[in-house]
Amino acid sequence: MFYTYSVGRLLAPFFALGLVFFFTRKRWRGIVLTWAVFGLTLLPFAVFTLRHPGALSERFKHVTFVKPEHTRAQIVGRFVQNYAKNFSPRSWLVSGDPEPRHHLPGMGSLLIGVVILALLGIVVALVRHRSEAWWQFVLYGFAVSPIPASLTLDHFHTLRLVAIPVFLIVLTVPAIECLLSENGEWRKARRATLTVLVLAILLQGAVFQWRFRVSLPRVDAFDSYYQELLATALRRSERPIYLLDKTPAAYVYAFWYATLHNVNVNNFRRASVNEPIPHGALVISHELPCTNCEIIVERGQFRVYVQK
Hints:
This protein is α/β, with parallel strands linked by helices. The protein has two domains: 64-214, no CATH class; 226-307, no CATH class. It contains 13 helices and five strands. The protein has a five-stranded mixed beta sheet with strand order 2-1-3-5-4, covered by helices on one side. Strand 1, helix 13 and strand 2 (268-271) form a beta-alpha-beta unit. Helix 7 crosses helix 10 (163-180), helix 8 packs antiparallel against helix 10 and helix 10 runs antiparallel to helix 11 (187-214). The longest helix has 28 residues, at 187-214. The chain is globular and about 85 Å long.
C-alpha cells in the first residue's frame, strides 16, 4: 500500500499503528516483529528520499490545501470540513465522484444495500463486539481511511477514498450474521430484511453493469486515444515526428508506446511551444491548437497534423 499510491504513504502507517489493538502480553512480540518488518520494507523509500530530497512530496504540494500562508486554525477547519464531506451519503449513494474518469455519472459510488448492511454492522460491532480487537481495528481503519483524502483540495476524490468501501464490505459481516441468527425474536422479519437487501444489491449492481457497457466513452484523460494517433503518425513517411505538448511530460506517451512496439525513439523529436515547426513536418500535439496546418486525425486532447 505504501508504494502503490500516494495516499498509501499515510494510510499504511495508520493501519500499522492500528495493530496496537491486538497488543497483548502473549502477542506483543508478533506485533513488534510486524512493525520491524514493515520498517525494513520502507528502507528503499528512505534511501530514495535522501538521494532526491523533495521529489516524492512534490505531487502533494500541488494537491493539498496545507500552505505556509494558512494558519493552523484554517488548516484544521478545512480538514474537518473535508473529512465530514468524505462521508457524505449524497456523494456516495446519489451523485458519485464528480470526476468522470473515476466514475459513471448519474449513479452513486456505492450500492445502497451494502451501505445499509454496513451501517447495521457498525451498530452490531459497537454493541456486541466492542471488546474484540479485530472489530476495534476495523472500526479504527474505517475512521482513519478518509484522512489522506481530507488533506487534499479535491472534493470527494474516490481514488483517495478507496479504502472506505473495503471496510464497509467487511462491516457487512456482523450485520449478515445478526440477520441470519437463529437466536432472538423476529427471525422471519430479519431473514426477509436480508433477502430484500441482497436483491437490491443485485438489482442495482446489474443496472450499473448495463449502464457502464452501453454508455458512451466517459472521459478524455491521460493517454486516451494516444495509441491510435501514434499508429497513424508512424504509418506516414515524415521523420522525425515532432512532439509538441502543453505539459512537459506528455512526450513520454510516444516514448512508452514506441518502446513497447520496438519502434526506435529516434523517430521522435521533442519541440517546445516557442520553437517554430519546419514546413512539412509531422506533429503529434497535446492540448495545443495548430495554425496553418493540415489535420490528419484528431481525438480528444491529441491531434496529428502536418505543418504548412
